[in-house]
Amino acid sequence: xxxxxxxxxxxxxxxxxxxxxxxxxxxxxxxxxxxxxxxxxxxxxxxxxxxxxxxxxxxxxxxxxxxxxxxxxxxxxxxxxxxxxxxxxxxxxxxxxxxxxxxxxxxxxxxxxxxxxxxxxxxxxxxxxxxxxxxxxxxxxxxxxxxxxxxxxxxxxxxxxxxxxxxxxxxxxxxxxxxxxxxxxxxxxxxxxxxxxxxxxxxxxxxxxxxxxxxxxxxxxxxxxxxxxxxxxxxxxxxxxxxxxxxxxxxxxxxxxxxxxxxxxxxxxxxxxxxxxxxxxxxxxxxxxxxxxxxxxxxxxxxxxxxxxxxxxxxxxxxxxxxxxxxxxxxxxxxxxxxxxxxxxxxxxxxxxxxxxxxxxxxxxxxxxxxxxxxxxxxxxxxxxxxxxxxxxxxxxxxxxxxxxxxxxxxxxxxxxxxxxxxxxxxxxxxxxxxxxxxxxxxxxxxxxxxxxxxxxxxxxxxxxxxxxxxxxxxxxxxxxxxxxxxxxxxxxxxxxxxxxxxxxxxxxxxxxxxxxxxxxxxxxxxxxxxxxxxxxxxxxxxxxxxxxxxxxxxxxxxxxxxxxxxxxxxxxxxxxxxxxxxxxxxxxxxxxxxxxxxxxxxxxxxxxxxxxxxxxxxxxxxxxxxxxxxxxxxxxxxxxxxxxxxxxxxxxxxxxxxxxxxxxxxxxxxxxxxxxxxxxxxxxxxxxxxxxxxxxxxxxxxxxxxxxxxxxxxxxxxxxxxxxxxxxxxxxxxxxxxxxxxxx
Length: 745
Prior knowledge:
Elements: E1 3-8, E2 17-22, E3 28-33, H1 46-49, H2 51-56, E4 65-68, E5 71-74, H3 77-95, E6 100-104, H4 112-116, H5 118-125, E7 130-132, H6 139-149, E8 157-158, E9 165-169, H7 173-176, H8 186-195, E10 199-203, H9 209-212, E11 216-218, H10 225-238, E12 251-252, H11 254-261, H12 266-273, H13 277-289, E13 293-297, H14 299-302, H15 307-320, E14 330-331, H16 374-379, E15 388-392, H17 396-399, H18 403-411, E16 415-419, E17 432-434, E18 455-458, H19 474-485, H20 494-510, H21 521-525, H22 533-544, H23 560-564, E19 570-574, E20 590-591, H24 595-606, E21 615-618, E22 645-647, H25 649-655, E23 662-667, E24 670-678, E25 686-688, H26 703-707, E26 722-723, E27 728-729, E28 734-742
Parallel strand pairs: 6-7, 6-15, 9-10, 9-13, 10-11, 12-20, 15-16, 16-17, 21-25, 22-24
Antiparallel strand pairs: 1-2, 2-3, 4-5, 4-17, 8-14, 18-19, 21-28, 22-25, 23-24, 23-28, 26-27
Helix pairs in contact: 3-19, 5-19, 6-15, 10-12, 10-13, 10-15, 12-13, 20-22
InterPro entries: Asp_de-COase-like_dom_sf, MoPterin_dinucl-bd_dom, Mopterin_OxRdtase, Mopterin_OxRdtase_4Fe-4S_dom, Prok_molybdopt-oxidoreductase
Domain 4Fe-4S Mo/W bis-MGD-type: 2-59
Protein name: Dehydrogenase
C-alpha cells in the first residue's frame, strides 16, 4: 500500500513544503505541494514536482569509486576512506595544510549535512584555501553587509508581504524562486502586492517573466546598476527626500554618502545606463513617496564589475528612504538556529584581505578566495601550491570561468576527493568519489535559507525513505571525511558530533548572557534528543536559539521534539525590526560610508568617461533549472529550458543572424558555437546564454545531460575580471563578438 511523507524541497531557495507519495515498491512516485505547510501553503514548481525523478535517477552513484591504475572503479566504503587517508596524509606531512584546498558548491546549503560538517572539515584541515560558489554568486552582498553592519551574514531581505513598492534589480524570482530572499510562491506574493495597490519595477537587460509582470521595466545596459543606484541616491539628497525614520539614529556617514552621490545625477549616468534621466528621476520620486518601499538586488547586480558597490547602494537607498529595518522595507530575518539576540554594543567589525591568494594576490573575503583563482593555485609551481583538493557538492568546471583551464588543472592534482552523487565534469578527476544518498533518504533543515526567509518559521523533515543497503548518510560521509583529514580515519564518526556538541556547550556555559551560563555541559548534553549526532546538534541549536527553551529556561520554547510534533512547521511570525541589536561594527552604528566603498566610488566615476561598444553577454535562469546536475532529470530538460544564445532582432539583422542559425561567440576566455534565438526578450547590444550547460566532456555518467549537452557559457570568460572587493567573477556584462557559422536549418 502506498503512503505519504512530508519533505521540504531542496531543489531551490524557495524551500517549499512537499507531500511525497511513496509507492509499494518503496520509492517516491509523486510529489505535490503541502497545503498545510506554514510557509509555502501548497505552492510547488516544476522542480519540486520532479522530486521522484530526482530521487530515482539511475545515473546517481550508489557506492564509492576509487582510482586504481588511472581508472575509477567501484569500491567499498572502508576502501574509499582508507584511500582518502592514504592519499592526504603524506601530502599534509610533506607540504602542510597550505597544499590542500576545499571547494564547496551551491548544493551544500541545500542539505542538512552540508550546513553542519564543512566548517568542521575546514577546522581540521587548517587550510587558508577555501573556494566556494559564493564568489560566483552572492559574495558582494556579504561583503557590503559586513562593511555596513559588521556581520557578513546580516543580509536584509525584502518584506514582500507588506511592501507597497518593490524595485527588483538584476533578479528574476519568477524563474529562480527567489535568492537571498527565501520566499515560497514568489508569483503569488507579487500578485498580492498588485492586489493591495502596490507597484513593481524591474531593472534588467532582459524582459524576464518577472519583468513582464512589472508595472515598469527598465532595460538597463548590463553592469551599470551602481550608476543607476547612485543617481537615485543623488536625487533623494538633492530634492530633500531623505527621511531615514527610526533607523536614522543608528546611521553614521550620511554626509559622506551625500558628497559621493553629488557626481552622479541622472543626467550624468543616463548615457552609460542607456536610460532616460527623467525616468530615473521619476523612479526616485516613487520610491521616496511610497508608504513602504524596498529595493532588492540579486545575481545580475552582484556578478558584475561593481557588484559590492551595487549591493551597498541597495542598502543605502533603503536606509535613506526610511525603508531599512521596518515592516514593508528591507528587514533582517531571525532564524530559529541563529544566535539569540544580545543587548546592543560595539563589535569587532568586518575585515577584508586578512590574507591573500598565493599566485594572484587576491584578498580573502569572508574567509574565502575567488573561485576564479583556483586553477592558477593548482597550476603554478612553488611553495604552497595546491596539490590536493576536496570538492563537496560542486562542479566548478561548469560553474567557474574558463572551465577548460580548470579541467586541465584538476587533471594535474596529486590527489582529489569529491563528495557528489554524480560522475560529472568535475568529479571525473577525483581519486576518491563519495556519493551521498538521494534527498528522499536524507533529513532536511534549512540552516542557510531560513536566515534569508521573508517570514520567520521553522520546519524539519526526517528522511521519507530508509537508507538503501550499502549506503551511508551524508552526515556520516562528511564526518568520516573530517576524521580522515585529522588522521583518525578509524574512529567512530559519532565522535565528530560529540566534539562539536561539547565545544558548543562549552562556549554557552561560559557566556554570562546565555540561559545555560554556569551549568554543567555534560548534564546539558544528556538532555539532547535525536536519532543521530546531526539531530542532536540541531536540537542543541534550537534550544539555544532565539526561540529556544534554553534547556528549561523557557518551557514553551523550541526543541527538536517540539518541531517534530509540528510536521507542517511552526510559524514564528513576520519579520521584526532588529537594529541596533544585530550590529557588530566598531562604532555600534550602521556605517553607511565604509572607506573601501568610498574608494571604489572613484573607480566607478571614471566609467562615466568611457563606454564600451559592442555586444555584452548576460546569463539566463530557467524555471526548471538551478544547478548543472538538474540537466540529468528528464522532466527538467527540453521545452523552453533551452541552451540558446538570445539575440535582439536589430542586432541579428545587423550581423546577418537568422533565428536558429549556428553562431560563433568569442570572449576573453575562448569561443563556442551555439544556436541563435532571435527575440526581443533581450535589449539591443545584449546577448544571453543560460548557465550550467556544457555536458560534452568524456568520462562522465550523466546520460540525459549528455543527450542535451548545450554549451558552457563560462568558457567565454577567462576569470581575469573580478569585483575587487569580493573577488566575485564578472559573469554578466562581459564583451563578446558574434559571427555566423551556418544559416538556420
